[in-house]
Amino acid sequence: MKTTLLEMRGIFVRKANRTRAHVFIIMLAYLLAYHLRRCWSDIELTVEEAIAELASICAMDLIMPNGVACQIIPDPRPLGQRLLEGVNITLPDAIPHRNVNVVTRKKLVSERKVA
User: What letter would DSSP give residue 111?
Assistant: First the structure.
């Protein structure tokens, strides 16, 4: 199970249920990587390279004259399209835009910040 993509390393947790949760998440990631590797077996890329290629797919904001906003997804590059077809995923043409800001990184308490 130790690969360049997944790393099962010792973590220091004090409770057994947290240790089980960590191992469960690692096993889910392993199963996902295994499934992707099988779906993309005809494409000569590693799972890491394929995910990096799919990360290049983006959405662009489109605001109509009447103020209605949506995000459009341009066609992916040919390799990205092959990867999506390999896992039977079709992208929508547009996504409704709600103008919601999402913070994905937790802010550190000022005492914990290292100078």
Answer: G
Q: How far is CA 54 from CA 23, 36, 49, 103, 111, in A?
A: 27, 13, 9, 22, 38
74: Cα separation from own chain's centroid:
18
DSSP assigned state of 44: -
pLDDT in tens, 34-65: 999 999 999 989 888 999 999 999 888 888 88
Query: Residue 23 and residue 8: Cα distance in Å, rounded?
Result: 8
- Secondary-structure percent of the chain, ordered helix, strand, coil, rounded to 5: 40, 10, 50
Give 71-106 pLDDT, tens digit per residue: 888 899 999 999 999 999 999 888 877 767 777 776
- Convert 32-41 to b/e letters by CB count within 10 Å (16 or more is b): ebeebeebbe
